[in-house]
Each structure stands twice: as structure tokens, then as C-alpha cells.
Amino acid sequence: MYAFDGSSAGMSKSEATDRLVNIAQIPEEEVDRVLELLVWFGFFGVGPGGAAKEKYAYDVQSNLQRLMYPLRMDDARVVIHPAFRSALGVTA
């Protein structure tokens, strides 16, 4: 989670992936699994590219397939849950 210290609240999948690889030193072949784990844990929500509200795992009864599909299609962004933002110095 500390790889996102000082980041913006919402970011593209590629930006999140870059932070996981370059800052957290997650091997590239493991990044998708780590990203899915962060979504499952509720650290990340998934939202459309526009201004619509993001959804978290608890919003879809932990149906990760439903949340991860738009990310796999590069048609969504990840959003850090508000509960983690102040501790990480996340900007809006």
C-alpha cells in the first residue's frame, strides 16, 4: 500500500502497475494478482473513466470478476478507498 504514498486518489491501471513494479518491486508477472488482491481487500475500488462513482468489493458482494473485467479491458481506473487516503497523503 505504501507504493501509493503521495499519489492521486484515482489512477489508470498502468499507473498503478508502474507504482507496484517500480516502488513496491512486485515482479511484473505478479502485478495482476496483487492488483486483484488490493481490490478484494477494499484498498482499491474500480471506476469508469468518467466522473461516475467507483465500486468496491463490498458493493458487489465480493464478485471480483465483475470488478476486474473493466480493468482487464483497460476501460476503468482504480481509486484508493477514502479510509486510506489521509494516512498515505493521497490527493484528490
The helix/strand order is EHHEHEH
Which regions have little confidence, pLDDT < 50, spanning 5+ residues?
none
Specify the oligomeric state.
Answer: single chain
**Mean pLDDT value:** 91
Helix and strand content put the structural class at: alpha+beta
Proportion of residues in β-strands: 5-15%
Describe this structure in words.
With 92 residues, the protein is of the alpha+beta class. Helix content is 40%, strand content 14%. Strands 1-3-2 form a three-stranded antiparallel sheet. Helix 1 crosses helix 2. The protein is globular and about 30 Å long.
Give the arrangement of secondary structure elements.
Blueprint: E1 10-12, H1 13-22, H2 31-41, E2 44-48, H3 64-72, E3 76-80, H4 82-88
Helix pairs in contact: 1-2
Brief rundown of the structure:
The protein is an alpha+beta fold.
Can you give keywords for this protein?
globular, 3-stranded antiparallel beta sheet, alpha+beta, 92 residues, single chain
